[in-house]
Amino acid sequence: MIIWHLLTGPTVGFIDLGSHFYDTRIDPERHKRNHIRQLEALGDTVTLEPAAWPRRPISAAPPGAAARPLTL
Fold first, then answer.
1. SS3 48
2. For 8, phi and psi rounded to 5 degrees?
3. pLDDT band, residue 15 (cuts 50/70/90)
4. Quick one: which of 4, 10, 37, 40 has the fewest CB in 10 Å?
5. What gap in Å lies between CA 49 and CA 10, rounded to an integer?
6. How many CB atoms lie within 10 A of CB 30?
């Protein structure tokens, strides 16, 4: 139904927001609250503790791996 409106409407257009549109809008605290709420709804008790290991950015290479440039 949506595609029909996009294809037939003279003033309706599709704007691609890009593959990273939602990735940049993730609120980690909101996700944490949602996961906690879901676990508690299943009957679990949730206790949060800081991670024992330091977090590293997603784009960082794994330990021991040589960084290589990305070529497409």
1. coil
2. -100, -20
3. confident
4. 10
5. 54
6. 9
Residue 72 has pLDDT above 70, yes or no: no
Tokens at 36, concatenated: 């906690």
Paired tokens of 43: 């009957």
Predicted TM-score of the model (pTM): 0.43
Residues 6+ apart with CB under 8 A from 15: none
Residues in the chain, total: 72
- Return the closest-CA partner of residue 48 out of 56, 37, 64: 37
Token code pair at residue 11: 């003033």
Q: Name the token pair of 7.
A: 């294809």
